[in-house]
Amino acid sequence: MILSQHKKTSFVVGLFAAGLLLLMASYRNIGDPGQFKNLKVLPQDISKDSLHDLMDGYNEALGVKCGFCHAPKSNGERGMDFASDAKKEKGFARHMITMTQNINKNDFNFANSSRPDTINVVTCGTCHRGEKEPSAFVAPEKDEKKGVSSMVYPNKFEPK
Asked: Could you tell me the pTM of the whole model?
């Protein structure tokens, strides 16, 4: 009877330890520095899950697939060479990522966050709206009788 109780306790403790290890391994999912090659704008220690989520967000914001920015492998293998800078679109993307980070940090950091890189008021989707090229802004037509206020307050909600 003592032996069977010991086996049960050992099993429960072992199961708990295994679960705890799995939880710890998946909780932070922090990448090893150097895990990804040629990251110039994104953090070097970004987790694999975070990087994939971020890239999926860029795909949705621009309505594109990975091959829009990433070059295919040059050795004849299938897949993308994510470290390659062969495509000019990747350079444009880095510039635009830096631009949105700076806008958010400098113009929307109202709480003086110590992590302004996490502020996402302005994103790729703000302008691109699911398109490779953002649409040109077309101003509403000016009503000559009402002047500029008809453009600013188009629904007759003019200030008194």
From this structure: 0.66
